[in-house]
Amino acid sequence: QSGSLISSALGVGLSLTIVTYLTIGISGGHLNPAVTCGVAITGKAGRDFGPMEAMLYMLAQFAGAIAGACLMRAATPLQVGCEVSEDSPDCQGLKMLTFLVRGSISTEHGVAVFAFELLCTFAMTWTFFATVVDPRSVARGLAPLAVGLSAVAAVIAEGPFTGAGLNPARIIAPAVAFGNHSHCVAPVAGAFAGGALAGLVYCYMFIFSEQVPDVYMITSAPGEHEA
Predict the structure, then answer these.
(1) Cα separations (Å) of 224 from 23, 221, 227?
(2) What distance separates the 2 farthest-apart alpha carbons in the chain?
(3) Which CA distances in Å does 132 have to 88, 121, 146?
(4) CA distance 77 to 203
(5) What is the number of helices (H) and of strands (E) in the chain?
(6) Measuring CA to CA, which residue among 26, 22, 44 is closest to residue 128?
(7) Does pLDDT of 123 surpass 80?
(8) Is the pLDDT confidence value at 112 over 70?
(9) Does 198 have pLDDT greater than 90?
(10) Would you give the distance in Å from CA 165 to the centre of its chain?
(11) How far apart are alpha carbons 116 and 184 in whole angstroms?
(12) Which are the contacts of 127, defined by CB distance < 8 A and separation ≥ 6?
């Protein structure tokens, strides 16, 4: 079980790292609607990234995820240990469980699932803001790797309990592809809340702008503040 968890976490993290490297120069590396939500509500992506652009980004993210989930459903072979026909309910159930975001507490502990998703998505979005969004970042060239490693840590932390969605598109896509929408509300809400909260808190604490009240801005060197 532990070996399977580690391999799954590394697969998620390395995939996220590679695709973020591929897209960061094109779209800013936005692959997660929760992260896009956090960036949009803080207004830290420039004047050209407003609510309409954020909605288009999220539409593309959900569409791509659903297309990928449908492709995987069609391409996945008969599951190991399924000794009946591929169209049987038992075999279809095995396929479904392979891709749905589920963990040991998903069916009966919605509040706990919400909390797990909020905290882990918060950490991953915080990493994105610290390395990609923050103009003072000294690790911009390694930002995709940092984001990928944060995903590895998040999957290890919550995977056995919730299935580690971390991404609303990842949660919704297999539910649509397999026609099973149960237990999706808590993880999707938690992921969006974590992304939005991380963006707001990070910007409040570290990215100052003209719109922030003077009392919250660092306007002079230590010891030089006016009385």
Answers:
(1) 43, 6, 9
(2) 79
(3) 47, 16, 10
(4) 46
(5) 8, 0
(6) 44
(7) yes
(8) yes
(9) yes
(10) 7
(11) 14
(12) 146, 147, 150
